[in-house]
Amino acid sequence: KMREYTEKKETCGTICLKYLLFIFNFFFWLAGGAVMAVGAWTLAEKSDYISLLSSSTYSATAYILVVAGVVVMVTGILGCCATFKERRNLLRVYFILLLCIFLLEIIAGILAYIYYQQLSMELKQNLKNTMTQKYRKEGEESVTSAVDKLQQEFKCCGSNNYTDWADSQWIKSPDASGRKVPDSCCKTITDLCGRRDHPSNIYKESGCITKLENFIQEHLKIIGAVGISIACVQIFGMIFTCCLYRSLKAEPY
């Protein structure tokens, strides 16, 4: 009777673990979709501004999240199969994948945090130079597009203010056709509107550096929070997997 009770207890424990792990996998799979979406959204919608950054850390954190999201979704399906088939070898593979994703997301979170600290200094050192030296330069079309979008979207002109454009290689050249600032500095864009730098015409007092910094920092917060949050949730998944693995090992075949 004691043996029957122990076996029944083990079986009940295993069933509970199976359902806990299944529920975890379902939410984990949804979380994988969310992680992938955040990474893809950052790269697709906000990739224009990546060309204005000298460091590749911002895009690297987004790529890590996309990869982690894809692996999470595949792992979630594998976890469900391993749980209901009660295959210890599948559970081993599942646990290793969980551990790899955990490390990936921790790395993404740490990179986002480190870059968050360094971003202000990087922009102060490089943004003005990037805008003035690369704008309208051959082969730097992505920077030109990013600068125009930045100035229009954030209603700003230049890195610190509109006077930065006096140092621009393009503004100094005949190609500028007498413009003092790019047309994207204008409140209402018309051809050659950059010739007139009156406050009624351009975003004269507002530089782009603070606005871009705040924008990227907000996205780094999201990337870091998503990465670390999902990684913390995975700890429970790894614990459930270990418990189920041990309970299956104890059962007679």
UniProtKB/TrEMBL annotation:
SUPFAM superfamilies documented for this protein: Tetraspanin
Membrane spanning stretches: 20-42, 62-81, 93-116, 222-245
Pfam families given in the database record: Tetraspanin
Intracellular or extracellular location(s): Cell membrane; Membrane
Plastid among keywords: no
Membrane topology annotation: Multi-pass membrane protein
Top-level taxon of the source organism: Eukaryota
A single cellular component GO annotation: plasma membrane
Keywords (A to Z) from UniProt: Cell membrane, Glycoprotein, Lipoprotein, Membrane, Palmitate, Transmembrane, Transmembrane helix, Ubl conjugation
GO-annotated biological processes: cell migration
Subunit organization: Interacts with integrins ITGA3:ITGB1, ITGA5:ITGB1, ITGA3:ITGB1 and ITGA6:ITGB4 and with CD9 and CD181. Interacts (via the second extracellular domain) with integrin ITGAV:ITGB3. Interacts with ITGA3; this interaction modulates ITGA3 glycosylation pattern. Interacts with F11R. Interacts with RAC1 and CDC42; these interactions mediate physical association of RAC1 and CDC42 with integrin adhesion receptor complexes.
PANTHER family: CD151 ANTIGEN, TETRASPANIN
Similarity section: Belongs to the tetraspanin (TM4SF) family.
Protein name, entry field: Tetraspanin
Annotated organism of origin: Zapornia atra
Lineage of source species: Eukaryota, Metazoa, Chordata, Craniata, Vertebrata
